[in-house]
Design goal:
mainly beta, 4-stranded antiparallel beta sheet, elongated
Length: about 100
């Protein structure tokens, strides 16, 4: 059984009792969160595809922690002009565990 869920504009294929890194959520650690934007749901009885969302299906998750992703270096250079610029960026993420789909 799995579901495709829209979380803050990104789509994730999730299944129960698994952990995922998603864009930063507002909820505090050890709190539960419910996602109602389920795009597709697959189980033993068949597949349900939403238009745009599947009615009556929700995904419950538990927020484990907030953290930052690895640093991404952005380096810009124009040759023969002496122009170069180096920037770094660390995306903020939230680690969640899917507790229930249905």
């Amino acid at each position: 059984m799995f579901a495709v869920v829209d979380i803050l504009g990104q789509q994730f294929k999730v299944s129960e009792n698994t952990q995922y890194f998603v864009p930063k959520l507002e909820e505090e650690p050890d709190k539960s969160v419910t996602f109602k934007n389920v795009l597709m749901f697959v189980d033993d009885s068949g597949t349900k595809i939403g238009n745009p969302y599947v009615e009556g299906i929700k995904v419950d998750a538990k927020v484990l922690q907030h953290l930052k992703d690895d640093k991404v270096i952005v380096f810009k250079k124009k040759r023969r002009t002496g122009y170069d610029k180096k920037n770094g960026h660390r995306q903020q993420l939230t680690k969640i565990e899917i507790t229930k789909i249905g």
